[in-house]
Amino acid sequence: MRPCTKWRWTTLKPPIGLKNKYMHSEQAEKFLERSAEMAPDLDHRRKINFNIGKYNAVVPHGKAQFEHLELARKKAKNLKWRAIEKLDRYLEQFEFNFTRNGGKVIWAETTEQAQQAILDICKAEQCTTVVKSKSMATEEIHLNDFLEQHQIESVETDLGEYIQQLDGEPPYHIVTPAMHKSKEDVAKLFAEKLHTAPDLSPEELTLVAREKLRKKYVQAQVGITGANFIIADTGSIALTENEGNARLSSAWPKTHIVLVGIEKLIPELKDLGLFWPLLATFGTGQKITVYNSIISGPRKEEETDGPEKMFVILLDNGRTNLLNAKSREGLYCIRCGACLNACPVYKNIGGHAYGTTYSGPVGSVITPHLRNMGEWKHLSYASSLCGNCTEVCPVRINLHELLLENRYEAVAGGSSSLGERIAWKMWRRASLSRTAMNLGTGKMKNFVVNSLFKSWTHLRGELHFAPKTFNQAYREKQQSLGKETK
Q1: 131, β-bridge pairs
Q2: Maximum CA pair distance of the chain?
Q3: pTM of the prediction?
Q4: Closest to 93 in 3D by CA, of 227, 1, 253, 231
Q5: Do residues 451 and 357 both lie within one domain?
Q6: Fewest CB atoms less than 10 Å from the CB: which of 59, 222, 307, 441?
Q7: What CATH number has the domain bearing residue 375?
Q8: Nearest 5°: CA angle at 389, between 388 and 391?
Q9: Which of 374, 393, 412 is the last residue of a domain?
Q10: Exposed/middle/buried for residue 123 (C-beta within 10 Å: 0-12, 13-18, 19+)
Q11: Looking at the structure, do residues 146 and 167 belong to the same domain, yes or no?
């Protein structure tokens, strides 16, 4: 029988003296410390559950627009499979078509290359102020901090991102950056940073942000956005949003820079008819978001709106590592955030505990490949493997299975301690031997195992074996039925 364990969230910090023995990386240690701080915070949990509850209430309305939802999800997964399998060809096709439309494509293999490309464009345009719409790719390369170091003001124009920027925090969630803040928290923050009244309503707070940000659009020489999708057959980018700030960031300044991961590619323009409703439904519970834009290049001579120059920076930054891994399915992600909202671990420890740009189940799958498996493998263990993330994914990524693949890859690649490998070898040998499992009493086994497997029990409840072995229980059952046993 399998021994029972339970998580001890309030005792995540290892005892002094065990830290070096059991922590395999600095990031793992930080993760445990942040998790230990957030898990018992009931106020934090209340806010998260409230906001996720709002999301759960509206998603069924969005799903109602699909006559055959599962068929739509399967088709979306097949389209992403096709895009990733032929990614090199489609990226070249996108570059050819976008360049023909008057834009320029820049390939960035690393964070540093992407940062330098953006800085070079800003310097060429004598830029002092940048307006920026919500983009996880720019968060990934820490663009705001980089530009500030070069005396260029970078202003977040998405309301949630603006709130986080005022508070000096990274996004908490890939779709709703300030999900962990209540309206009272935001009112207090605005009072401290913008000197407004401390009791403003959400509508009043929004108007304050609108007034501040509108001035920045006029001042900015460069606008920076991400892209929800890049379209190969037309050389276009697709943006979907609810506030209109991405439209203003892309159309008002004279120069528009798009930073987008290479995995955001879809083969054809018509595919948006499937992906936009799926993204809206699973991201925010809407049938379609308020603003949906397709931008194919800079403004033409006969056009009155749009930027004079447009650049698309195609970001690798570790994504090709995923192409060569069993977890390549993680590249199908359309960044809806549904898996975060469904994950019991995320709902207990929050987005910032992960210490990385992409949190939740999908972040735990892709981050070890985007960065370093040895340093980030702990994220693949931050899961109950309940499978709820896989169940809610609009493109049917087998997230909980990919977490297991990451664990296997980490061990096979040598990213585990000698003690850990020996312990699991002993456990495997004992578990496969009925003779070994029958040795001793339950109390004796509990003592031996909990003494040996400190690296397991210092983060969890102790292992408990049944008082009787399976053979003993079986014989007694048969005897009570009057049957003979050998």
Answers
A1: 155, 223
A2: 95
A3: 0.88
A4: 231
A5: no
A6: 441
A7: 1.10.1060
A8: 60
A9: 412
A10: exposed
A11: yes
Q: Count how many domains the chain has.
A: 3
Residue 59 in tokens: 């998603």
Q: How many CA atoms lie within 13 A of 117 on its CB side?
A: 23
Chain segment 398-441, per-residue pLDDT in tens: 999 999 999 999 888 877 777 778 878 888 898 899 888 888 88
- DSSP tag of 350: -
Q: Could you tell me the residue range of the domain that residue 392 belongs to?
A: 25-58+320-412
Same domain, 421 and 407: no
Rounded Cα distance between 124 and 293, Å, is 27
Shared domain for 215 and 95, answered yes or no, is yes
As given in the structure block, the two tokens for residue 73 are 């999800």
- Return the SS3 of 101: coil
Q: Are 144 and 166 in contact (CB under 8 A)?
A: no
In this model, does residue 13 exceed pLDDT 90? no
HSE toward the beta carbon, residue 402, CA cutoff 13 A: 26
Same domain, 230 and 287: yes
Instruction: Give pLDDT, residue 14.
Output: 39
